Amino acid sequence: MKNIILVAATVLLPVTLVESAPTVILSTTSILPGETLRVEVDGAPPSARLKAKFSGKSYPLYTVGPNAMRALIGIKLDAVPGIYDLTFKDQQGQLSSLPVSRIEITTKVFTIENVNFTKEKTELMKAEHRESVIIAKEKMYASRDQQWESTFAFPVSGPIIGEFGIKRVRNGTIDAGFHKGIDLRAAKGTPLLAANSGSVMLASNFKAHGKTVLLNHGQGVMTIYLHMQSISVKVRDKVRKGQEIGKVGSTGLSTAPHVHYQVFVHGVPVDPTQWVNDEF
């Protein structure tokens, strides 16, 4: 039996000394749009180069321990409910012999919220797309090292006044799509803290997004903070979890002092609350 296991593992990965075939461990097999799926492969040698394939996209697996690899997959808010295959490919792009997993994306009910802006604030919407393109380019960067530690924290302790995943309408008629983060109320000038350790990818004064900081936490995970009054970090700075990166404000498309806070996994906005409650 041992020889059979060794042969099976050799077919999967080009190594010779493996005691047992790698196994796949999933955080869940049923997931909502906007949530994060954790995929682990245990028993894979350090030389392995695998990618997980799910819903038409490939996700790199990064080493997270001795013979352990992990991929994180963000489920888009507009994902179509259904059952999807999770498979793996090797460095040559060939399907591996790891078992196929079946993941169900379940149905999520989205509420609708209207936000009214003044004429002056409404004018700022013209800059929103251009700024989003700049942010999108930066948030797709993925470094191999994990910089975050344990669970994430909210950047301020105020109440949530804008839920993740609601559908936003502006001024009663303008479809703003999904609210891709959460809004946390805090007084103007409140210290705004890094949700976890990372490095600064962006520190900019935008018209629509306001004063903005984007942090890279490694392995495709990033956080962004919008509408700040002031910024106290600069690009390429290393920050620690809980370090002040600026102060709460109401710059850009904002009606009152708060922080709009988002978590991205390989560019996909995911529920920040899950990252506070669960360790990835």
Helical content stands at: 10-25%
Elements, N to C (H/E): HEEEEEEEEEEHHEEEEEEEEEEEEH
Overall SS class: mainly beta
Uncertain regions spanning at least 5 consecutive residues: 1-18
How many H/I helices? 4
- How many whole angstroms does the radius of gyration measure? 21 Å
Total beta strand runs: 22
Beta-strand portion reads 35-45%
Main beta-sheet annotation: 10 strands, antiparallel
- The rough form would be described as globular
Mean pLDDT metric: 90
Distance between the termini: 35 Å
Question: How does the SSE layout of this entry go?
Answer:
Blueprint: H1 2-12, E1 23-26, E2 30-31, E3 36-42, E4 51-54, E5 57-60, E6 62-65, E7 68-74, E8 82-89, E9 101-105, E10 112-115, H2 119-123, H3 128-139, E11 160-162, E12 167-170, E13 174-178, E14 182-185, E15 191-193, E16 198-205, E17 211-218, E18 221-231, E19 238-239, E20 244-248, E21 258-265, E22 268-270, H4 272-277
Parallel strand pairs: 2-9, 10-12
Antiparallel strand pairs: 1-3, 3-7, 4-5, 4-8, 6-7, 8-9, 11-14, 12-13, 14-21, 15-20, 16-17, 16-19, 17-18, 18-20, 18-21, 21-22
